[in-house]
Design goal:
homodimer, about 110 residues, alpha+beta, Alpha-Beta Plaits, four-stranded antiparallel sheet, 4 strands, about 35% helix, about 40% strand, globular, monooxygenase activity (chains A, B), monooxygenase (chains A, B), Dimeric_a/b-barrel (chains A, B), oxidoreductase (chains A, B)
Chain lengths: ~110, ~110
């Protein structure tokens, strides 16, 4: 979950998850790593970019189709995490499903 | 640029900007705040969510249409910032223009 993902040519899908954490860890870090690991093995997963700065975090995951997003949403272990998220980890979040239409990459010439 | 944006009902557009900073400030912080301030005054601007954790940052801005995104891209002061970005502030970035199709909000009951 480090750095910029080299996604394929659009169109593909992005899930933008913005969240505000509650105080304390409550098993969050371990579960977060586990979820990234599990998601990476899902069919249609294209990558994930994530940043957390204290309270606010943004995680963007990329997928080949809405069907793949639906399958990940319904994954049993992910559902357990979603429930824990609402009960303990997040004071607020937004989740947006988007179709990526255009992209551009830049790298500084060394 | 704090917290989760209460965007209107989809469809609308999101620009996902993921970036890796170079070392040092080089006037970045001042310009970043100025750009958020300017963008907020643009026609069709719906809000912005941003997080930076050392090297990696993700900024998602929300817009009512592709036309508004284009106008912001071509804003003179923003173009100066874009040039500085490529010349000094970013070692790498990705920029993705997306159509938001679905959204969901959650808030913990106090």
């Amino acid at each position: 979950m480090s750095g910029i993902v080299r996604t394929p040519e659009p169109p593909y899908y992005a899930v933008i998850f913005s969240s505000q954490r509650t105080e304390g860890d409550h098993g969050y870090q371990v579960m977060a790593s586990k979820m990234v690991e599990l998601a990476s093995k899902q069919k249609g997963f294209l990558g994930v970019e994530g940043v957390r700065d204290g309270e606010l975090g943004i995680t963007v995951s990329y997928w080949d189709s809405l069907e793949s997003i639906k399958e990940w949403k319904e994954h049993v272990a992910h559902q357990v995490a979603q429930d824990k998220g609402k009960a303990e980890w997040y004071s607020a979040f937004s989740l947006r499903v988007c179709k990526v239409e255009r992209q551009r990459f830049f790298e500084m010439v060394k």
